[in-house]
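Can't paste images in this forum, so I'm doing it all in text. The chain is below; anyone willing to post the predicted structure tokens underneath?
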Amino acid sequence: MVVSRRVLFTEKAEIEMARDALTPELVYEAILNAPAIFKVLRSRNPKTKKSERLYVIKGLTFDGLAIYTKGKILKKEGIDVFYVLISSKKSTDI
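Text version of the structure:
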């Protein structure tokens, strides 16, 4: 989904990116360069109260900038449609 740019950014992720002067391209780079998904969290969506999985990905841009992201897969009719970035900011521990 990230390769094909099927990514949605929440307002929180956009605020964090702006604070850290990150562009969507830098975030995509870090996700694509990450060696693996760092952690999978079980969560409950505050709006729908449904259980969901959140994926924590820590990666580096080509220039070595460490970026932390947390997101979920948005499904429509059982098909993975978008990767929704809930959090996206500079990281200090990669």
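The radius of gyration is 13 Å. The first helix runs from residue 11 to 19.
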